[in-house]
Amino acid sequence: EAGVAQSPRYKIIEKRQSVAFWCNPISGHATLYWYQQILGQGPKLLIQFQNNGVVDDSQLPKDRFSAERLKGVDSTLKIQPAKLEDSAVYLCASSWTSGSFEQFFGPGTRLTVL
Amino acid sequence: SQQGEEDPQALSIQEGENATMNCSYKTSINNLQWYRQNSGRGLVHLILIRSNEREKHSGRLRVTLDTSKKSSSLLITASRAADTASYFCATDAQGGSEKLVFGKGMKLTVNP
Q1: Taking residues A30-38, what's their average pLDDT?
Q2: Rounded to an integer, what distance in angstroms lies between the CA atom of residue A36 and that of residue A91?
């Protein structure tokens, strides 16, 4: 079974620039998550999709972050404009559905904002 | 906000020894999960224990849950160098959107 795919793996940008990350979840998984993991901390949920609807985006900085999951499969996360404090690893995960199920994580995108 | 707190924050042991990690959390939960993260394999699910379970085993892993104390422990027996990683507990709070909230993590180093 193919895992969760993410691209790019690394990205370096200057502050105020824009960046986009892409995620392809495991086939058949209804729930998709985007997490931000700052060095030395645990992942923090940014947004959770159930199919193509948003379940939770309470911790998404909506003034600069946006995410979409067209057709309930792939997803993109965008930051516009980026700030220095956005430097982190952005993890995408998926699960069969929401609730008490394990989540499968992609390799992440390491973003450095200079 | 982070719900779980792992303890200790770092642990260094010799191969073959057992490693115990503890997690405390604040609110009532539906379930608690443990994940491992290393540079080679990324973040990987280890085990899930539901709020009505007290103990669960998976290979060399043993997890306990005490909902009255709002705490869990992860025991890795007969540790191997490959167990070197960061370990996170994650909780799924009752009454919420069923999202997972991760702790800050604990760094385990197993010396060969």
Answers
A1: 95
A2: 6
DSSP lists the bridge partners of residue A31 as A50, A95
A17: domain CATH number is 2.60.40.10
- Name the residue range of residue A29's domain: 5-100
Select from B51, B100, B106, B107 the residue whose CB has the most chain A CBs within 10 Å, as the one to mutate to test that interface.
B100
| Per-residue pLDDT reduced to its tens digit, A42-96 | 999 999 999 989 999 999 999 999 999 988 899 999 999 999 999 999 999 999 8
Phi, psi torsion values for A68, nearest 5 degrees: -145, 155
Segments of chain B scoring below 70 in pLDDT: 1-3, 95-97
Tokens of B74: 């992860």
Q: Which positions 52-91 of B are in contact with A (Cβ < 8 Å)?
A: 88, 90
- Residue A114: CB atoms within 10 Å: 10
Nearest to A108 among B31, B42, B105 (CB): B42
